[in-house]
Design a protein that fits this description.
By secondary structure, this protein is of the alpha+beta class. It is built from two helices and seven strands; from the N terminus they run E-E-E-H-E-E-E-H-E.
């Protein structure tokens, strides 16, 4: 499954000493992913994905959040390569790896 969306880059508040950034996968896409993975997830409910943000591609996992959607971590190397700052709206493409 392939999804394309834009989402705001936000900081994970649980780690105030570090800059862990994420984007939220939209609710509709998250619902579709939940239906496809149907309990076949990794640790912490993670789902492996191939990601593209701007011109940068990598493999990572998305993680369920408390609101029933998924969060996608955006690592520092991607933020630097794509000149991203907190609050920027980020173009994202994700593809489920194992489904």
């Amino acid at each position: 499954m392939h999804f394309e969306f834009e989402a705001e880059l936000w900081r994970w508040q649980a780690r105030q000493n570090e800059l862990w950034t994420f984007v939220s996968v939209p609710a509709e896409a998250s619902a579709d992913i939940i239906e496809v993975v149907d309990g076949m997830t990794g640790g912490f409910g993670s789902v492996r994905v191939d990601v593209q943000v701007g011109e940068t591609r990598w493999r990572t996992s998305i993680f369920p959040d408390s609101g029933g959607s998924f969060s996608l971590p955006i690592k520092k190397a991607v933020r630097v390569a794509e000149s991203l700052e907190l609050g920027d709206v980020v173009p994202v493409q994700i593809e489920l790896v194992d489904f």
